Prior knowledge:
Number of domains: 1
Shape: rod-shaped
Amino acid sequence: MKNLLTALFLITLSGCVANNSSSIFAGSKPIIDTKGVNMSQYEIDLEECSIFSEDISTGKSIAKGAVTGAAVGAVIEAITDDVRSRRDAIEVGAVSGGAQSGIRAVREKEQILKRCLRGRGYKVLN
């Protein structure tokens, strides 16, 4: 039952991260120096650059991280003598691995977007 709940949690988490990151990084839109910038062209460039960043699959990153974390948890569970520590090692590993991988994927998307904008001549401040 615990494994089923963990799997459902990870699926929900990957959906949330994937949905939030697809709307041009909900809340972390790049800050640029707007002096002398044609804002209409900037919006076009921002949209085009965000399309490049969508090549990074947040959901797949979360799933891979969860599997890796669960594997590490299974190893820890196998070598730990403390029954309380062993009990949740796989679940904690899966959730932790999935969350960390999701965060890394979102950061990578943000970096791709910012690099693209810099390449088009914008001064990205954040």
